[in-house]
Amino acid sequence: MNLVNATRSELSKQFSTSVWWVLLIVLVLYIGGTAGGMAAVFAAGENGSLPGTTSLPTGLGDRLPSLIYGLATAMGYVFPLVVGSLLVTGEYRHKTLTPTFLATPRRGIALSAKMLAGVVMGLVFGVAAVGSTVAAGGGMLALFGVDPQLARPETWAFLGRMLLALVLWVLLGIALGTLIRNQIAAVVGILAFTQFVEPIARVGASMVEGLADVVRFLPGAASDALAGDSIYAAMGGGASQSLDWWAGGLVLAAYVVVFAVIGYAVSWRRDVA
Amino acid sequence: MADGQVLEFTDVAKRFGPVAAVDGLTARVEPGAVTGFLGPNGAGKTTTLRMLLGLIAPTSGSATIGGRRYRDLKHPLQTVGAVLESSSFHPGRSAAAHLRVYAHAAGIAASRVDDALGIVGLGDVAGRKVGGFSLGMRQRLGLAYALLGDPGVLVLDEPTNGLDPEGIRWIRRFLRDLAAEGRTVLVSSHLLAEVQQSVDSLMIITRGHLVYQGGIENVVPQDEIATVVDADDREALRRAIAAAGFESDERRTGLAVRGADAPTVGRIAADAGIALTALQRKGPAFEEVFLELVSGTRVHPSAENGEETR
């Protein structure tokens, strides 16, 4: 009962400020726009209607739709990650942890409620991300005469796994937020790691013997493995080196658990002065 | 729901590294009265209140509400309402949405949100974002949060900070009314003048130690109060007072009578048919006693007892 109430409270926090819909619009425009644009270029390249596309990876054929849809996680995961971190760092920034803990004095319940609310936010952002790649990307593919593969059950399983990955990213954001309490530091850190450090590490490590075994355990790589396909794999990260989808999911979930436990122990339980 | 509860601090202490912010504080706050929690800045008031509310974990000892620790309360917001700082708001959230967030968490009906805003006079701005609120409005919203669950206990940390004189008068009256309904009201302040005229009893704290607890009328010890009285026939007056069983000693301005207040001395003179030319209470000012308690040059027995019960 306490947990249910606390979760409702967390959700009403999320939906009573404008951050969620601003981020949602940016996500749909960014992910949908990229998916639509890429789908158009690749599909045109595939069917030969666009001359001079020899520099693009061709012969993707069957993989093309999942590559386009996969942008929902490959590019989109930063949004749920930021949403999750804001769910916690916002409390520190606006000093609202005091009223929160007064209403829900048991810290474990308060954090669990954030996680449950995070699942809902993950589904909201996940459906938006997956939906916009499918709508814009799939639409473009169909327009250029490439089968968007929406009749195949594997495609829907793939979309479902992406949704799961995006939910896990919100939870990881929450866990990180308890550790990096400063909102600006948390968002800058997330952007730096996800947009520069990990992509460079993954592309770089694929050229170094032995390192690929390590980088596939990075959170982004685990997320791609969970989803099943990504632009990195197509760019030479090597799909053969990636983890199985379930293993990728477990690795990502393990990041959530480890950071949440550390954050709870060293930060969340601390005095609120 | 408006059951006043006894607040009990039992040898509660908090150390921040080498600093003892609160050092073995034992005190009891009764329902049905406004209790002032007085002490200079940095005396440990906020830390004490936050320990009571489960926001700071005591190093040792305990602070309870009706015998329970805050975190063990079944319905915290329906039991204790707290006003702790004026900036605990997300600026982008409306006043009503802010309260709704915590009404959800405590399982309080959404209709209480409008009630609480109405009580503090913010009913007209319920839909406005808190970011545009003045300091006084934020204080009122903080109070609305405290009242959300119609609690029997109210704990307020410097609630008049930033309020204009009208607002201060309003909050004083309001707290008195809540106490008159049988609730427990504990309100901290570093300003003596602030609590002097608005509380029934007092806890005075300095450097983490309790130096006084009890009724506000007992802060200045009775035996330090003398009544100075004079008449044209000072010798006759001295005899009348002696006959009534009081000692007096002669001063330049008249006779100082120990242990008798002004009405008593006045009556003695009237019975003896002596016309008075002066009659006044003489003793250390409240503020003087307060400063001596805080600096440690005066020790009040109410605090000594607290030490002995360790």
Structure keywords:
heterodimer, A: 273 residues, mainly alpha, 13 helices, 0% strand, B: 310 residues, alpha/beta, Rossmann fold, Alpha-Beta Plaits, six-stranded mixed beta sheet, four-stranded antiparallel beta sheet, 11 helices, 13 strands, 34% helix, disordered C terminus
Descriptive overview:
- The complex is a heterodimer of chains A (273) and B (310).
- Chain A has 273 residues and is mostly helical.
- Chain A has one domain.
- The mean pLDDT of chain A is 88.
- In chain A, helix 5 runs antiparallel to helix 7, helix 5 packs parallel to helix 8 (153-179) and helix 5 packs antiparallel against helix 9 (183-205).
- The longest helix of chain A has 37 residues, at 107-143.
- Chain A has helices at 2-15, 19-47, 64-69, 71-74, 78-93, 97-103, 107-143, 153-179, 183-205, 212-215, 219-227, 231-237, 245-268.
- Chain A is globular, with a radius of gyration of 20 Å.
- Chain B has 310 residues and is an alpha/beta fold.
- Chain B contains eleven helices and 13 strands.
- In chain B, the strands form three sheets. A six-stranded mixed β-sheet of chain B has the order 5-6-7-3-8-9, sandwiched between helices. A four-stranded antiparallel β-sheet of chain B has the order 11-12-10-13, with helices on one face. A three-stranded antiparallel β-sheet of chain B has the order 2-1-4, with helices on one face.
- Chain B is elongated, with a radius of gyration of 24 Å.
- Chain B starts with 6 loop residues before the first strand and ends with a helix.
